[in-house]
Fold this sequence. Notes:
- This protein has a single domain (23-164), classed as Peptide methionine sulfoxide reductase (Metal Binding Protein, Guanine Nucleotide Exchange Factor, Chain A).
- The longest helix is centred in the N-terminal third of the chain and has 13 residues, at 2-14.
- It has 4 helices and 9 strands; from the N terminus they run H-H-H-E-E-E-E-E-E-E-E-E-H.
- A 6-stranded antiparallel beta sheet has the order 3-4-8-7-6-5.
- By secondary structure, the chain is an alpha+beta fold.
- Zinc ion is lined by residues 62, 64-65, 67, 110, 112-113, 115.
Amino acid sequence: xxxxxxxxxxxxxxxxxxxxxxxxxxxxxxxxxxxxxxxxxxxxxxxxxxxxxxxxxxxxxxxxxxxxxxxxxxxxxxxxxxxxxxxxxxxxxxxxxxxxxxxxxxxxxxxxxxxxxxxxxxxxxxxxxxxxxxxxxxxxxxxxxxxxxxxxxxxxxxxxxxxxxxxxxxxx
Length: 172
Ligand SMILES: [Zn+2]
């Protein structure tokens, strides 16, 4: 019954998405890993995100649709083993109440494509401006445009490799 309610809830949101692909189309666009996390709200092994300790300046985009979600300015070291941000780029996220697994959590999804990103935890006592921890499942990093242009002049063949972070939202 819970699962049924959840499907109805999500289908309403899907209809309002700017990027609204079918599940088959997503399977073509995404890797199996990305599809599992973004479209099936899956989780990955803890500690597999390569950007956990990534501290270079840049913008973190949705792996599904390239929408900018977070900047490096809001990234902080939470010590939880996964990349954490204290705030998202305004308007980038859709927020849900997630009552799965016997818990009440705040789920975050990409507003543009509906991809599952992770959860937000509040009031944990981090010394950040918001005291929020956005624990994100699947994003990729891109350098700021200005920086990129400079780099392209220097090394025309260099192309920023965008890898996917797949991490598990902490339940602690
Ligand atoms: Zn997206």
